[in-house]
Design goal:
The longest helix has 84 residues. 94% of the residues lie in helices and 0% in strands. It contains three helices and no strands.
């Protein structure tokens, strides 16, 4: 009769030990999933920050270009008013001023254009980085994290 009692006990202990081993493996896998999810999230945040920085640079360059264009427009208005007076002496001075400020404006436009080209290249690189994200793998990681966190949420909800 004792052998009958030990066999079920041993079988139960073996089953418990197997369950513990499976639980340890499961815990290890869940940790790996959580680390992967954290890395993926960090990469997404980094890409978003890079995009925001580049958008800010583009906005600044557009504002600079707008200021240059506004200055050029005011210079043209000044020249037009001077031409209406038909004072050739003033006209000559205005043409000289226009040529000087026009050259400066062109230099500023060239500088702004170079800045825009650099920003376009940076945005292109950022878009390539965004396209390289494996959305399917990210979604799988999010689902796996949900599967891990849902039982924890239910467990902690029981204590409220």
């Amino acid at each position: 009769m004792e052998t009958m009692q030990t066999n079920p006990n041993e079988s139960l202990q073996n089953s418990i030990e197997e369950l513990k081993q499976l639980e340890r493996k499961n815990l290890r896998l869940n940790r790996i999933k959580l680390i992967c999810l954290a890395l993926t999230t960090a990469a997404c945040v980094l890409i978003c920050v890079m995009l925001l920085v580049n958008i800010g640079k583009i906005t600044k360059n557009i504002d600079d270009l707008s200021a240059v264009m506004t200055e050029a427009g005011s210079n043209i208005n000044t020249v037009a008013q001077d031409l209406q007076k038909l004072d050739f002496e003033v006209l000559g001075e205005s043409v000289e001023t226009f040529a000087t400020t026009g050259a400066e404006t062109i230099d500023q436009i060239k500088s702004s254009t170079q800045g825009l080209e650099t920003l376009i290249e940076q945005i292109s690189n950022a878009m390539k980085n965004l396209q390289s994200i494996n959305i399917e793998q990210l979604n799988d990681s999010i689902r796996e994290m949900h599967d891990v966190l849902e039982p924890l949420a239910k467990f902690f909800k029981a204590f409220q």
